[in-house]
Amino acid sequence: MAKLVILGSAGSVPDIEHDNTHMAIVDTEGVILIDCPGTPIVRLARANIPFEAISDLIITHFHPDHVSGVPLLLMNMWQLGRKDPLRIYGLHHCLERIEDMMGFYHWDNWPQFFPVAFHRLPESERVLVLEKEGLIIYSSPVRHLVPTIGLRIEARDGGQTIAYSCDTEPCPSVVRLASGADILIHEATGAIVGHSSASQAGAIAREAEVDRLLLIHYHLGKQQPVNLVAQARETYPGEVELAHDLMEIDL
Ligand SMILES: [Zn+2]
Fold it and tell me: What is the distance in A from the centroid of ligand 1 to the CA of 30?
């Protein structure tokens, strides 16, 4: 059975218990990584996800808390003798910068480097990102400081549908992307430009008529608001939970 694993739940500043927000979808066909901060090989080991099983990487936008681990991911794959191609999906804005970033590392000179295929996603709603035997993933643009996508993951054969807002202000395309989903994973950084508060996430979840809301990408430590779940409950009558690192959701 496929599952979604939360590899990190923190906003832009992580701590010992919360890595930057990223996740993995694991099934019998392989692993799809969604964003790539930090030291991916260590994080995946902690989650008991085989590093060599990564087949696809979706990058939601080009901000350090979402892409900083990409050079290390690619270098570690190469050093461990990877031969299989890796597919990387994202908007042109993001993939262009990933290619530039890898250019600074002179990856064109890395001997016997495995093939990397870039899939540029159009900046429109419900774009098919990838399709596997057991699931299908769509993307839609959301409203952040740079071009950014949210995702909708639909498991086949009566499995769950999960929508992920990524970093965004409250925005109608997230409502459409999440419409009727079982779970909405929505960011809860705060009511600042390019982001959403927990109560705004609740309002989006209510509008999209999802069954369950999972708050992610939240501030930690001193900045931690008293109770994000309570704030979301003010605007959303369904089940609300705070995402935590290494949490697993069956698809
Ligand atoms: Zn972020």
Answer: 25
- Decide: pTM greater than 0.85: yes
Give me ligand 1 centre to Cα 215, in Å. 13
Burial class of residue 179 (count of CB atoms within 10 Å of its CB; 0-12, 13-18, 19+)? middle
pLDDT 10s digits, 21-55: 999 999 999 999 999 999 999 999 999 999 999 99
The CATH number for 96's domain is 3.60.15.10
CA 187/CA 40 separation, integer angstroms? 21
Q: Find the 135 Cα to ligand 1 centroid distance in Å.
A: 25
Between the CA of 60 and the centroid of ligand 1 the distance, in Å, is 9
- The runs of H, that is alpha helices, within 16-114 are 40-46, 64-67, 70-79, 92-104
Buried b or exposed e, range 202-231, using 16+ CB within 10 angstroms: bbbbbbbebebbbbbbbbeeeeeeeebeeb
55 Cα: distance to centroid of ligand 1 (angstroms): 23
Provide the number of structural domains found in the chain.
1
Domain that holds residue 213: 3-250
Which residues, 6 or more positions from 170, have their beta carbon under 8 angstroms from its beta carbon?
196, 200, 201, 203, 204
Instruction: Give me the residues paired with residue 128 across strands.
Output: 138
**Among candidate residues 160, 217, 228, the one with its CA nearest the CA of residue 186:** 217
